[in-house]
């Protein structure tokens, strides 16, 4: 096996192992692609594991906007149960540029809270030998930069041409646990800093409605036992933009 594939296998193995006890779970960063005052954007995204994210944003001027994000996951499986909820508030600046004003830069900052509960079961020859329960709340602050383009490429499906938009978001999150318990016993709280690059593709069904595929990673800058980078972002969803007005020159 070539060295690069061995390294990729090792990375994915580390991610899978670390996800067993990881308290932190990133959401889908809000990428509203706002362009004018009065525009409202809303997006719903879901992962294959059932992690649901809802993002909203409103432009209250031609350059400034507010956002509200929230998400939830409630998964019960034989070896692992996950119950996770989060809520975020933020605001920031956006600007269009380029020959046709079809490229967008967005900068946001905000804060949020989350609750996380994980039940991990260990089996030996099919017999349950141990159960660990991780229960914690955490707070976080974030800063985020988005770049996207409304300049569309074309893709043909079933003889119909659809436009494609692309974009990326880079988020820096500062998270700290509180009231962390392991099997009901209080633990030392942890903090970490996460770099969360995300890339997305949107299929344009109409000027207001698009389908979105999002993929991204999660990198923890500090070595922590529980508040670590155990989850990545892979979701499909839909985005609605309404209230857009032509910009006056």
From TrEMBL:
Domain of life of the organism encoding this protein: Bacteria
PROSITE patterns registered for this protein in UniProt: PROKAR_LIPOPROTEIN (PS51257)
Protein name: Outer membrane protein beta-barrel domain-containing protein
Annotated source species: Pedobacter xixiisoli
